[in-house]
Amino acid sequence: MDRESYYKKFNWNKSPFIKSTSIDTPIIRRTEEYEKVVECIGGWDRIMVVTAPIGYGKTTFMNLLIKEKIHEIDYIISFDSYDPVYAVIKKILSSLPLWKRLFSREVNRSEFGKLLQKKLGSEKMLILFDEAQDYDEELFRWLRIINDRANNVFMIFFGLPTLENKITSESSFRDRKSKSIKLNPLDLDVMGKIIRERIKWVGGEGIKPFNEGGLKRVCESANSIPRKLLENGQLVIREAAIREKISIDETFVEGVLGCFEEPVRDYVEPYEVPKTIEKESSIVDFLSDLSPMQRSIVELLQVNEELSISELSEELASDIRSVGSLIRKLRGLDKDELLRKPNVPYPIVVRKGKDKRSGRVQYVYGLSDNVRRLIAKR
Predict the structure, then answer these.
(1) Which end of the chain is more exposed for a tag (fewer CB within 10 A), N or C?
(2) 26: preceding bond cis by omega (within 30 degrees)
(3) Dihedral Cα 205, 211, 217, 223, nearest 10 deg
(4) What is the number of domains present in the chain?
């Protein structure tokens, strides 16, 4: 059966699992994080940073702030990608009522903050910046001037965890940041609510074609990540259409998605690195011998002391099994890999213990001390 016909069986006008961050998609309220923003604005914390890994719902949370405008805020403006300073100025001015724009003279960017404060008076403006880790440093420097001269302007920057490092590197801006907020992983009840709301959104009834067991297994497969929930849900629905499956239970979900939980033990005995292959600090640039994905893992672990395999797969947007295989090689557990790359000082990555991540205990990994030393000497 084709998918369109399958959707019609449940009165869906489209798949409930389509990836969309448009303002009309159902938004599950992140109450804790929302209240933190409300408290910050009430306490006059004017620069906030909201971070989370890929797929955690940063844009959705931004849309929540737009749909449920905090009552103290008079104007709210959002940017979903990098814009140069002149474009930001134009959009800010266009958000003001016509009578406040009529007598706006041409003003240079350094004077804009003073003009904006005059236009706002006692009113408050909230500016939201999505994917802020990709913004040009010039914009951050200019926004620092706006922060200094327009006292009623609040800003929230949404981005990956690396955004904190970017803001920290811009000292004049770092000193003005007043609050960091991390989006929490979603529990199973909230994940189930997302599916229920989305099925209702596309015209469906209840949780059909899922039964409770099937719904729970799809939620568990997502490892608390909303984007992964949509990806896995779409895979299950696509396969259900092919097999004309009208009732989706946990067995069917497991058959489609396979074993989706990361193992918490190694299934192979560690291979001892031969003395002839061990390398010391004389290695100049071993990174060139690694694959692009292996280098990406090393770069992430340079920024983050410890990450689990599931967290790495989120950051790299890669399958968890593929990342697990790469970690095994970087740990020096693949004999063939060791022999193929004699200039690489294995182990690159070491297991640093267990930690609770995304609601469950997982192994976490970091760079070996030797590798950190070599990288620092490059």
Answers:
(1) C
(2) no
(3) 20
(4) 3
